[in-house]
């Protein structure tokens, strides 16, 4: 079974239409940007379907002013904005309250992705997303959607021993939080490349009592070298070995990666199992926002319905 789809672009008129299952699976997809990558897009309305949820990644060192300005611009173009709130780079509760107020006052933000963040040592009082939730500030501000991070291949930062014990305990805590509050939540995951392990992980969450909707992270079209660089930086696990093996073949090294294979497998599984808990696709546009958006359009993503922010 192919894990990745490396192929040459078809010549004009030879493109294979996307299957109905894939088109359905891509409905409501979201995409992630950073302030510096968003600057390269003249108008997101030329690329994304109406109502697309746009996550804004907050990398350590990015001024909050740049984050808010990006959120304001994308919101003004008609999209649902979901900025990251990385716990470990937020100094204290006052800083968190200030960020929330800025996002709401200037960019009408009502959604957030809460995560620990990529820094090893916290900058202040917060170490994990659960502490952000416990402040109650997002509820007081009337946020309609609070997504949290998921890791289909585990996370060595959270579980250094390679187990998934701490990750699972955190997701169970967040599940209970969603049940005892009015918070509408979903799990947005790190990207992965094999459908089989993704399906097994998602089914395992449900069996453990976590029924939050899953928005599966998928790496968009990119050069293999670019993909390996980001996979290493993001701590992608077994999938990285697949990429490294491919990189040893010079003929495949020069071909672009596209997520067709993994998405088709997930889409077919969803079509056969409608209750499958992966409900949306979340793209990491590692090869560029325009490239990713065009790929989504070519594969049926242009007819995406507006995201219903009240249902995850």
Automatic annotation (TrEMBL):
SUPFAM superfamilies found in the cross-reference section: FAD-linked oxidoreductase
Statement: the UniProt record of this protein carries the keyword Oxidoreductase: yes
Gene3D superfamilies: 3.20.20.220
Protein keywords: Oxidoreductase
Gene Ontology terms, MF aspect: oxidoreductase activity
Name of protein: Methylenetetrahydrofolate reductase (NADPH)
Organism of origin: Aliiroseovarius sediminilitoris
């Amino acid at each position: 079974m192919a894990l990745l789809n490396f192929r040459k672009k078809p010549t004009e008129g030879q493109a294979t239409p996307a299957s109905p299952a894939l088109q359905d699976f891509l409905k409501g997809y979201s995409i992630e940007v950073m302030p510096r990558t968003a600057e390269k897009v003249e108008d997101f309305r030329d690329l994304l379907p109406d109502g697309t949820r746009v996550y804004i990644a907050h990398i350590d060192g990015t001024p909050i002013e740049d984050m808010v300005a990006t959120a304001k611009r994308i919101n003004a173009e008609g999209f649902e904005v979901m900025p990251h709130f990385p716990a470990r780079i937020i100094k204290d509760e006052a800083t968190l309250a200030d960020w929330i107020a800025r996002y709401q006052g200037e960019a009408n933000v009502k959604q957030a992705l809460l995560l620990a963040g990529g820094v090893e040592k916290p900058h202040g009082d917060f170490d994990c997303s659960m502490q952000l939730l416990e402040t109650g500030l997002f509820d007081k501000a009337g946020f309609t959607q609070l997504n949290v991070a998921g890791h289909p291949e585990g996370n060595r930062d959270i579980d250094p021993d390679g187990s998934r014990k701490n990750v699972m305990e955190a997701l169970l805590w967040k599940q209970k939080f969603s049940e005892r509050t009015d918070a509408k939540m979903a799990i947005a995951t790190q990207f992965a490349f094999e459908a089989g392990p993704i399906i097994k992980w998602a089914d395992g969450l449900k069996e453990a009592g976590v029924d939050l909707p899953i928005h599966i992270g998928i790496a968009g079209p990119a050069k293999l070298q670019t993909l390996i660089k980001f996979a290493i930086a993001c701590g992608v696990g077994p999938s990285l070995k697949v990429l490294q093996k491919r990189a040893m073949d010079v003929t495949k090294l020069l071909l672009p990666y596209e997520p067709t294979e993994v998405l088709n497998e997930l889409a077919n599984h969803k079509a056969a199992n409608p209750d499958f808990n992966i409900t949306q696709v979340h793209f990491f546009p590692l090869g560029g926002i325009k490239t990713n958006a065009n790929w989504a359009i070519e594969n049926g993503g242009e007819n995406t319905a507006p995201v219903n922010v009240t249902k995850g």
